[in-house]
Amino acid sequence: MSPDGIKLLKTPVLDKSKWMQLPRDVIIGHDVLAQLPKVCEDLQVSGSALVFSGKGTMDVAGSQVLSLVREVMDAELFIVDTITPEIISEAEEAGSGVDVFIGVGGGKVIDTAKIVSYNCCRPFISIPTAASHDGIASSRASVPVKGGSVSLEANPPIALIADTGIIAAAPHRLLAAGCADVISNYTAILDWELSHRLRGEPVSEYAIALARMTAEIISKNADLIKPHSEESAWTVVKALLSSGVAMSIAGSSRPASGGEHKFSHALDQIAPGKGLHGEQCGIGSIITMYLHGGDWRGIRTSLKKIGAPTTPKEMGIDDYSAAQALVLAHTIRPERFTILDMGVTEEVARELIAMLYEE
């Protein structure tokens, strides 16, 4: 008996099923932390929680959040000073059996909470105290390891609560870095489309459209991004949220991470602790936009207006190290094809870095 006959009885169906996880409750505004108990009620989250925060962010928001959570459920505190595989394992042990994880702080805190959430199969709520990168609402997390950092799969938040008063009070450098991270979507998209044309990599038109629109919002409003302005914080947080949603739609970080991110990760190896992630991506985006033949001066102008660095020198990184990062970039996540994977010699890398200083 052959199975062919049976197969003939099957009706061909369109199989493009995809599982997307998106934040369900989003609250962005002034003094919104007090809404946390209502958010937990709306999400039907109860039982027990583990609240992640940093020593520096406890006074800013961590203590208030811990007090609010304890109004509706049992809650313990886990302080995150740094993010390492050992800290993640320790946090998973501390969170064993809890019903929800809540991250209150910057990138290290939020990334730790979302990784532990993913590994423990429990939801997590994101409460950023700064808007320095699009990880506040994405399903990816970065963990420093020996020789650089790795990007890990994680859970996106089921809720995002962003207090614009707290975020506006943070150093402007953090907000500017968040803007630069969003603007780098322009070149991440071009790299994705290039990979589609040359390697046949599938693309998501919806994710591309959303990521591009997010970058345009920040670029067009670059003149309005001012230090310690709540309206600026509101605009940037919305953009970071949209960028995170674009990644969830794509099912990967592709719409927000291309060659400029490889350049940033290479700098993390060569010149660790100098530039912020978003700052490095912004400069990388100027370079890769030039290689794509696009409006690289437009990106540079937007970054300058916002107050983000446009040269390695402004981040405290020497030009030689930046050129070496360009050459090294193709070794970062080699499975992700970008314009930097087409071959950048040391001589070309030096010329590209020199171009950043041209008027």
Automatic annotation (TrEMBL):
Compartmental location: Cytoplasm
> Which parts of the sequence bind glycerol?
134, 181, 261, 277
- Is the Metal-binding keyword given for this protein? yes
How is its cofactor bound, per UniProt? Answer: Binds 1 zinc ion per subunit.
The cross-references to Gene3D superfamilies, in alphabetical order and at most eight, read:
3.40.50.1970, Dehydroquinate synthase-like - alpha domain
Q: Which residues bind substrate?
A: 134, 181, 265
One Pfam match, given by its short name, reads: Fe-ADH_2
Instruction: Tell me the cofactors it needs.
Output: Zn(2+)
* Entry's Gene Ontology cellular component terms: cytoplasm
Keyword hit for Nucleus: no
Q: Which reaction does it catalyse?
A: sn-glycerol 1-phosphate + NAD(+) = dihydroxyacetone phosphate + NADH + H(+); sn-glycerol 1-phosphate + NADP(+) = dihydroxyacetone phosphate + NADPH + H(+)
Q: Which residues hold NAD(+)? A: 107-111, 129-132, 138
Q: Which domain of life is it from?
A: Archaea
Q: Which GO terms describe its biological process?
A: glycerophospholipid metabolic process; phospholipid biosynthetic process
Q: What's the Enzyme Commission number for this chain?
A: 1.1.1.261
Key words, A-Z: Cytoplasm, Lipid biosynthesis, Lipid metabolism, Metal-binding, NAD, NADP, Oxidoreductase, Phospholipid biosynthesis, Phospholipid metabolism, Zinc
One of the entry's Gene Ontology molecular-function terms is: glycerol-1-phosphate dehydrogenase [NAD(P)+] activity
UniProt: Zn(2+) binding residues = 181, 261, 277
Family to which the UniProt record says this protein belongs: Belongs to the glycerol-1-phosphate dehydrogenase family.
**What's this chain's function?**
Catalyzes the NAD(P)H-dependent reduction of dihydroxyacetonephosphate (DHAP or glycerone phosphate) to glycerol 1-phosphate (G1P). The G1P thus generated is used as the glycerophosphate backbone of phospholipids in the cellular membranes of Archaea.
Could you identify this protein by its name?
Glycerol-1-phosphate dehydrogenase [NAD(P)+]
Q: Which organism is it from?
A: Methanogenium organophilum
Which classification does the entry list for the species? Archaea, Methanobacteriati, Methanobacteriota, Stenosarchaea group, Methanomicrobia
